[in-house]
Write a structure and sequence with these properties.
Layout lengths: L1 H8 L26 H8 L6 E6 L7 E8 L5 E7 L1 E3 L3 E3 L10 H10 L11 E2 L2
């Protein structure tokens, strides 16, 4: 029952069917009152790979992704990505793609693949 509620809150695209074995993650971990600066402060006390989505003034999707990663020296670093929206292509973190039908699909992709310009992946939603 909880799983159904999560899938309702974070639906996948119409052409993907959810299955009982499918995890309800990724969650959007949307923080409507977070700025880039407050997201950086909040994430630094969490595990590597913790992420949140937040409002963004500069993108058509009006969302950004912030994730705790590390720099080349292994020190904690919060990376911020604009979530781009292209009417013909969908959502993505890089203007070169890949593109997805929804923000949850975009996040799901980066659970399994490296984020742009880093070796990090999404691991833990900030809740």
């Amino acid at each position: 029952m909880i799983k159904a509620a999560v899938l309702t809150l974070f639906p996948f695209s119409n052409n993907q069917q959810s299955s009982p074995a499918r995890s309800p993650f990724p969650q959007l971990a949307y923080q409507e009152d977070m700025t880039k600066e407050s997201a950086s402060r909040a994430l630094k006390s969490h595990r590597m790979g913790t992420y949140l989505t937040r409002p963004s003034q500069g993108t058509e999707s009006q969302r950004s992704l912030s994730v705790l990663d590390q720099n080349d020296q292994g020190m904690p670093l919060v990376r911020h990505y604009r979530i781009f929206y292209n009417k013909g292509l969908g959502y993505g973190l890089d203007t070169k793609g890949p593109w997805f039908e929804s923000i949850p699909e975009t996040l799901e992709h980066y659970y399994h693949h490296q984020l742009p310009n880093t070796k990090g992946k999404l691991c833990y939603p900030y809740l």
